[in-house]
Amino acid sequence: MSVTAAQKLQCVERELSYRRRVYARLVARGKMSELERIEEMRLMEAIRDDYRELVEAEAVPLFIETKRTVKQA
């Protein structure tokens, strides 16, 4: 079974939400530095952005332009 870029993006979004909550608690407890939190979030956000680009590239247009529709515009 193939996993789509859209499914991967949804998973990354869920993971980011989870990490925001968990990392804040880890920093508050002194188990993670603020710098580590920022770097980890930056990396996950970069992965999210990569998948967003893939999803946009895979998007199927709802309407296909033909020579006729282009002339009307």
From TrEMBL:
Protein name per UniProt: Uncharacterized protein
Domain of life: Bacteria
The species this protein was found in: Bradyrhizobium zhanjiangense
